[in-house]
Amino acid sequence: MKFLFDNDVPDDLGYVLRELGHIVLLLREVLPRTTPDPEVLAYATAHGLILITCNRDDFLALAPTQAHPGLIILIRRVSRTAERVALVRMLEKAGDQGLSGNINFA
Question: pLDDT digit string (tens) for 6-19?
Fold first, then answer.
């Protein structure tokens, strides 16, 4: 799978996904930090990337307004380890079909 990490997602989660064979792009590497959320989602959609963000409210409101490859809302936890575990478990449980075009929480 291919993912786009919003600016608020910890980089170290990308290392885990890459180790599992996924492609991870960081938003700041492909768009300016000030890019508005609708443009971020449009970029992810245009490039077939599942967007991972901690920006729950804005993207939950935005996602129903356009088709997208998938959106994962990362819930911040007390440790990065807990965040990594939650993300990997969610990916295993949802699989490709559960992520495609859906909103998931990790």
Answer: 999 999 999 999 99
